[in-house]
Specification:
The chain is mainly alpha-helical and about 200 residues long. Helix content is about 85%, strand content about 0%. The chain is built from seven helices and no strands. α3 runs antiparallel to α4 and α5 crosses α7. The radius of gyration is 19 Å and the shape is globular.
Length: about 200
């Protein structure tokens, strides 16, 4: 009887221990935990993108992966941590008006400059000239931003309404896995896919 129950008891025990450790880590070292989480998922997004592009691991570009991980460490991880902390302090509450204000701030005040930093800083890491980086930004910004406005509002409604502030960046990181897979793909294509070119030409 014990033997039949043990396999079910052990996973539950370790699951509780893992969640307890995770919560404690985020409470005691929130900045570090969020940087590690976002950097890991940003890297995973790039790996996924490269596998899709190359139909496997052949021609895998470790330098590209390193550049994306660097973005997580020096920009996205710390910036998102302080950004959401500030937003929650200035706009507490989960009523409809507060959520709508947060969504506006997120889509306009944060996302627009964030995409500019993404293209320009990655261009620097890729040793592109300033002019080449600006040209890529002009080509890809609008299609990327329009796609973001179709993806992120639904994600952020759940974030601001239901997610505890201590797990805010981690939740966004999980949603970002899908988004950053797309972003990595778009960033590393010399030409935009047809559907995104149509957005650019509007």
């Amino acid at each position: 009887m014990i033997g039949t129950k043990l396999p079910f008891i052990v996973p539950v025990y370790y699951q509780r221990m893992f969640l307890s450790t995770l919560r404690r880590t985020f409470q005691q070292r929130p900045l570090l935990a969020n940087i590690v989480t976002f950097t890991g998922l940003l890297s995973a997004g790039d790996v996924t993108s490269q596998v899709i592009e190359n139909k496997g691991l052949k021609n895998f570009k470790f330098e590209r992966l390193g550049n994306m991980a660097t973005m997580g460490v020096v920009y996205y991880g710390p910036v998102l941590f302080y950004y959401y902390r500030y937003l929650d302090r200035k706009l507490p509450g989960k009523d409809r008006k507060t959520i709508l204000v947060k969504m506006f701030i997120d889509q306009v005040i944060y996302t627009i400059p964030s995409l500019c930093v993404f293209y320009l800083l990655l261009g620097k890491l890729e040793h592109k000239t300033w002019e080449d980086s600006k040209a890529e930004l002009r080509q890809k910004f609008l299609p990327t931003y329009v796609t973001a406005t179709m993806f992120w509002p639904a994600v952020q409604v759940i974030n601001f309404r239901f997610v505890s502030p201590v797990f805010r960046v981690s939740y966004v990181s999980v949603a970002s896995y899908a988004w950053l897979t797309f972003l990595s793909y778009i960033k590393n294509q010399p030409k935009l896919p047809t559907i995104l070119r149509k957005i650019k030409d509007i």
